[in-house]
Structure formats: C-alpha cells, structure tokens
Design brief:
mainly alpha, about 100 residues
C-alpha cells in the first residue's frame, strides 16, 4: 500500500477511535448521577459531534462545496424536525390513552 493510501486510511481509524471514545463516555455518563438538564445537554453535544464526524469524514462532506454541505445539513435537520413533530403528536395521543387505563 502506498504512503498516500495509508495516510488516507489513518483519518478513518482516528475518526473511528474518537467515535468509540465518545460512545464510551456517553455510556459512562448514563450511569453517573447528574442533573437532568446537564445530562441532556452533554448528550446532545456528544451526538451532534458524532453526527458531524460521520458526515464530514465517512460521508466525505468535508471535501465538498459549502453549498452541498449546507443543503445536506438543512435538509437533514428539517427532516429530523418533521419526524419529531409527527412522532410527538402520536406520543401524546398514546400517553393520554395510557392514562385512561390506569385511572380507577
């Protein structure tokens, strides 16, 4: 394998290691007693960091034009908000149904 290909593969292994460490930290923090707001904030930052690394390195978005990156990010976030909005409506409906089952 040439030096260039070995150097190219190195970024993937380093990214994988960072993702592994972030995942381990997230699992560890799940066992720690901390305020809920802080826990949610740390988890959101860790998840966004992982998503950025995956998109930038493994999906090769870091080497693309800014227009394409913005399009992918905006569409991804928009789709995520849409799915969240649709699932929240159904979750509240199910929650209301479950409350009726346990009221005596």
């Amino acid at each position: 394998m040439s030096e260039t290909k070995a150097a190219d593969l190195g970024i993937y292994w380093r990214t994988w290691a960072v993702l592994l460490v972030l995942t381990a930290v997230m699992f560890f923090l799940d066992t720690v007693d901390m305020p809920r707001g802080l826990f949610v904030g740390v988890m959101l930052v860790a998840m966004m960091t992982k998503a950025t690394l995956i998109g930038g390195i493994f999906m090769h978005l870091a080497k693309e034009s800014m227009d394409l990156m913005v399009t992918v990010v905006v569409c991804g976030l928009g789709f995520g908000v849409l799915l969240f909005g649709l699932s929240v409506v159904d979750a509240f409906r199910i929650f209301d149904m479950m409350q009726g089952l346990f009221v005596r």
